[in-house]
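Open question from group meeting: does this chain pack into something compact, or does most of it stay loose? Before anyone orders reagents, we agreed to write out a predicted structure and look at it together. Recording both the input and the output here so the notebook holds the full record.
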Amino acid sequence: MIKKISLPVILLFLTGCHLFSKDQEPSPATSQESTTTTVLVDQSTDRTFLNEKLDEKADYPELTLPKNAPQDLNQAIQVYYQEKFTQTQKENSQKPLTQSQLKALKKSLNTEEELKELDLAVDQSQLKIGSDTLYVPRLIVPMRYSQAEKKCQDNDTKMINAALSELGNRLLIVAYYDEAEQILRPMHLVNSTESLYFDDAQAEDQ
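Structure tokens returned:
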């Protein structure tokens, strides 16, 4: 059984790539409490997030990074993954989930009392980090983060907790769909102990 983790604990595990909104500096507390590899967002990129590939029948598009995401983001994630993830952690995400497992996860999340108003979608993304091919479930919220927060406070944390209790210690993605822009923007790439990517600028985007 995976121990559930609260938002403060997740923030302490943000030792991967952390995107700050433009002109925002990391707080002193962040540098004291963790060894976060801070990537200040000041460049533009339109590259695919970790060479993402989707099933042809996917209902949602590939992930779109912020326009001001750093050019070397994928490389920074790869370096952290290779240096910090154990072999077991890597192997946990190298076996794809079946369609039955994905459907069961979606049903479980959407029957959670606090999450059911979000009408979450679940699919699976194939990512490439170094020589490893990873199969990562995407927890997709069909609205922007600010809209989701009005329905369920700390919804991303609650989704992560609920999903990891079902999946065990494997990577997952939390992403929000902007219908006006027709883009799917990732907020988290995380397992129960490590965060490879966190975009907290979405929390500031009202």
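Observations to bring back to the group:
The longest helix spans residues 155-167.
DSSP finds eight helices and eight strands in the chain.
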